[in-house]
Amino acid sequence: MRKFLLLLLFAALCCNGLFAQEECEDDRPLRMAIGPKIGVGLDMGSYSSLENFKPGMGLGYQIGAAFNAQFGRRTEMSCGGTGWFGLQIEAMYSSRSIKLGSSRLTTSCVEVPVLAQLYFTPSFALQAGATAVVILKAKPDELYYEGATYGTGQIKGNDVMPTVGLIYKARLNENSALLIDARYSMGMSNLAGNFDTKVSSAMLSIAYLFNVVK
């Protein structure tokens, strides 16, 4: 993950000049965009006091929609919506998977990240905020390990996860942009009383955004 973040930073600094010279006659100090977003990543279970289950990593994915707003102008000659600050709100369906002993637990979730963004260039930003998570379903219904059976019906796992990351926004034209997003979300709540494992995730995603305010 660290190598990817460094590579993303290098690519952003190298490519930023291609998009920083955008010319326009935009008189609005705001640019808002919305579009589809997909991602893949690693889910990580924290230490569990359950003797039979030692949590490990698993693959996850997410799909949904992202809303992005960027405020102000970089300079007096810049287009509207190229300033220092931004906001991103998403509505995502996600599948998470962690290893518990010799078994694997998969949860279907709804996630709503709300992230503030600080743009060091017109295209490259740090982001931080929180992700609200609601688990819809867990499977399998029962986990088996060393002759013992553990039910997953009590798993609800509603959580508010602190989230940090990096984004790179490549403007394709004056009406659309490609958004590359790398982030880490830290699990804060146990899955359930009988599953005292917290689940964190590292995600890499991409979104195709269309301007709704030009």
How would you describe this structure to a colleague?
This protein is mainly beta and 214 residues long. It has a single domain (2-213), classed as Porin (Beta Barrel), CATH 2.40.160. The protein is 9% helix and 61% strand. It has one helix and ten strands. It has an eight-stranded antiparallel beta barrel with strand order 1-2-3-4-5-8-9-10. A two-stranded antiparallel sheet has the order 6-7. β6 (142-145) and β7 (148-151) form a beta hairpin. The longest helix is centred in the N-terminal third of the chain and has 19 residues, at 2-20. 35% of the residues are buried.
Report the strand count.
Answer: 10
Estimate the mean pLDDT confidence.
Answer: 81
Largest sheet at a glance? Answer: 8 strands, antiparallel, barrel
CATH topology: Porin
Tell me the fraction of residues in β-strands, as a range: over 45%
How many structural units, i.e. domains? 1
Poorly predicted residue ranges: 4-9, 11-22
CATH architecture descriptor text:
Beta Barrel
Oligomeric category? single chain
N-to-C SSE string, H for helix and E for strand: HEEEEEEEEEE
| Helical content (DSSP H or I, runs of 4+) | under 10%
CATH secondary-structure class: Mainly Beta
Class inferred from helices and paired strands: mainly beta
Taking all Cα atoms into account, the compactness measure Rg is: 20 Å
The spatial strand order of the largest sheet comes to: 1-2-3-4-5-8-9-10
